[in-house]
Amino acid sequence: MSANRPAAVVVLAAGEGTRMKSKTPKVLHEIAGRSLVGHVVSAARELEPEHLVVVVGHARERVRGHLEEVYPGTRTAVQEEQNGTGHAVRMALEELGAAPEGTVVVVCGDTPLLSGATLRALAETHSGDGNAVTVLTAEVPDATGYGRIVRNPGSGAVTAIVEHKDASPGQLDIREINSGVFAFDGALLSQAIKQLRTDNSQGEEYLTDVLSILREAGHRVGASVAADHREILGINNRVQLAEARALLNQRLLEAAMTAGVTVVDPASTLVDVTVTFEQDAVIHPGTQLLGATHIGEDAEVGPNTRLTDTVVGRGARVDNTVAVSAEIGEGASVGPYAYLRPGARLGVKAKVGTYVEVKNSTLGEGTKVPHLSYVGDATIGEYSNIGAASVFVNYDGVAKHHTTIGSHCRTGSDNMFVAPVTIGDGVYTAAGSVITKDVPAGALAVARGQQRNIEGWVARKRPGSAAAQAAEAASEGSAGES
């Protein structure tokens, strides 16, 4: 088995995380569109281990359900009582059955910044150096509160992990710290884990005690230093959650910009790990790109836009818009102040303008809904224009109904299309019409009352009012001109 493919990866995700002060288990809190444990599992899967086991405990059914939803078939081991990290690993080994033959990587379920590349480097160092245990370490600017890595000056082997409170003055100057992530020889781990004791202040089985057990048995303990110390940061409270989100966001945006995306203001731009871009896309300030959103080549998004699970086609322009599960075609224009709800599909060069809402509707190529309208449960053909202040009346109080408007139609302002109704190709409709019946191709539909002017009504019904005085002055002016 290659060093790049461990025998097993064990993810420790059994803790409650009381410092989060939340009814949600700590490992299920999300950053960048993925749970904390989801980030760790995703990184672990990059190693393609023979086995991947997540140790669950607190709220285990919720954690299991989440894992099954996002990573179907994920294997779990139950730690009924949280009796320490060593005990948790023992539960994982019992779940696996026979002692793993090869490398076993153990990671914490609350380290969302940990990358697959760093885990792979850990496994490679472990195999290449022939270690019994390899500790993932990091050199940090301030090591206060962390366990210090003490090495043999000659061989570089790890001789001890000393907790901050137990460190000597010389050891306090050490900046290399323990991450809590390890690579073990599977067979040796299986033997040593049985020797763990609970005669400590917490009455728990500590995984770090395995290191001293193996070292005393004559085995080598080594270290792999993470390239970026921030990768090992664990999450214990909401402040750290937000800090990790900012760091991950920076990483994601830097990757996008390196690949040819313009991000005008990274400080005000938020993206999820599942967002994808094509070259020469432009992201303006105040934009949030969430879920499985994809931004096409030469498209411009923002400012002040939130897209969730939305596809933006090549060269499209989306400005001050909220969109959820929508498709925006090549060269289309959306906004400002538009709302695309699930099922909104805009064709090539279609337009959805200011204060327009579209839901579960398809707009054909070149079709425009420029102003102040609601389009729901509709199909509109190519190169049609929907007049301002139009409403597709799709709901009768019990069920939704569909409206079909053909190609090259020109509908008037302030139209109501009462579904179900079909408007044929090339139709014109008069402003102010309430369309309740199908309109054949090429017709003009007029559905409004006859206008009637009642002269002198204001003077009779509102005498002395400002309106009456203005009307009287207008009449006198007209009389003087004649």
From TrEMBL:
Its main location: cytoplasm. InterPro entries: Bifunctional_GlmU (IPR005882), GlmU-like (IPR050065), GlmU_C_LbH (IPR038009), Hexapep (IPR001451), MobA-like_NTP_Trfase (IPR025877), Nucleotide-diphossugar_trans (IPR029044), Trimer_LpxA-like_sf (IPR011004). Acetyl-CoA binds at residues 388, 394-395, 413, 431, 448. It is found in: Cytoplasm. It catalyses: N-acetyl-alpha-D-glucosamine 1-phosphate + UTP + H(+) = UDP-N-acetyl-alpha-D-glucosamine + diphosphate; alpha-D-glucosamine 1-phosphate + acetyl-CoA = N-acetyl-alpha-D-glucosamine 1-phosphate + CoA + H(+). SUPFAM superfamilies: Nucleotide-diphospho-sugar transferases, Trimeric LpxA-like enzymes. Transmembrane segments: none annotated. GO terms for biological process: cell morphogenesis; cell wall organization; lipid A biosynthetic process; peptidoglycan biosynthetic process; regulation of cell shape; UDP-N-acetylglucosamine biosynthetic process. It comes from the Bacteria. Mg(2+) binds at residues 110, 236. GO terms for molecular function: glucosamine-1-phosphate N-acetyltransferase activity; magnesium ion binding; UDP-N-acetylglucosamine diphosphorylase activity. Binds 1 Mg(2+) ion per subunit. Residues 239-259 are annotated as: Linker. UDP-N-acetyl-alpha-D-glucosamine binds at residues 12-15, 26, 79, 84-85, 147, 163, 178, 236, 341, 359, 374, 385. This is Bifunctional protein GlmU. The gene is glmU.
